[in-house]
Amino acid sequence: MPDQPQTPQRQTAQSHTTQHPPVDQTAAGQEPSGFHGLIEAAGDAMRQAYAPYSGFPVGAAALTEDGRLITGCNVENASYGVGLCAECALVGQLQLTGGGKIAAFTCVNGAGEIIMPCGRCRQLLNEFAAESFQILTPEGITDLDGMLPQAFGGQDLAHHDRQRGRTTP
Ligand SMILES: O=c1ccn([C@H]2C[C@H](O)[C@@H](CO)O2)c(=O)[nH]1
């Protein structure tokens, strides 16, 4: 597997060679060194969260394939159900700053602990994940299939369209 792009802190995400999940040998609770920059960036984003209703601020950070650092925080609303997860802000930021694919990702809670993205946000990440995608989870680093097994994606729509003789953009 190719090396991950470097973070602004010039650290490199750990590569993995075995099955998921998790695919690295990092013990749960330890920070794999290549993700230190992302963890820090996620913590900074978390401190900008607007979470007065849940009291559960979340920060997310990603490194794009071309080396950009993208972050997001959750933004809640008095109409609870329309609150935005940190990952929603992150993918908006990704697109706004030039698009591309996510090579590495992590997110943290208010205590700075690594958390898993909720189900909806795993789908958001799947849309923009690079083939080499790695996510730092509470149990270590895993890949796309470890995060969202048998993910539904554009390939399913393309398959459906082919059966109907249509083309998907
Ligand atoms: O992956 C997740 C899971 C939860 N939250 C937010 C939504 C809500 O504001 C708060 C409590 O669920 O945490 C995120 O931002 N990302």
TrEMBL record:
Which cofactor does this sequence's record say it needs? Zn(2+)
The ranges of region (Disordered) come to: 1-35
Q: Which domain of life is it from?
A: Bacteria
Which Gene Ontology biological process is one annotated for this entry? pyrimidine-containing compound metabolic process
What does the entry list as the binding residues for substrate? N74, V75, E76, N77, A78, S79, Y80
Q: What class of enzyme is it?
A: hydrolase
Q: Name one GO molecular function term.
A: cytidine deaminase activity
Keywords associated with the record: Hydrolase, Metal-binding, Zinc
Any idea where the CMP/dCMP-type deaminase domain is? 33-155
Regions of biased composition (Polar residues) lie at 1-20
Q: Where does Zn(2+) bind?
A: C85, C118, C121
Tagged with keyword Disulfide bond: no
Catalytic reactions on record:
cytidine + H2O + H(+) = uridine + NH4(+); 2'-deoxycytidine + H2O + H(+) = 2'-deoxyuridine + NH4(+)
Does the keyword field hold Lipid metabolism? no
* One of the record's GO cellular component terms: cytosol
Task: Give the active-site positions.
Answer: E87
The record, for InterPro entries, names: CMP_dCMP_dom (IPR002125), Cyt/Deoxycyt_deaminase (IPR050202), Cyt_deam_tetra (IPR006262), Cytidine_deaminase-like (IPR016193)
Q: What is its EC number?
A: 3.5.4.5
Signal peptide positions (record): none
- UniProt family annotation: Belongs to the cytidine and deoxycytidylate deaminase family.
NCBIfam families in the record, alphabetically? cyt_deam_tetra, PRK05578.1
Protein task: This enzyme scavenges exogenous and endogenous cytidine and 2'-deoxycytidine for UMP synthesis.
The name under which this protein is listed is: Cytidine deaminase
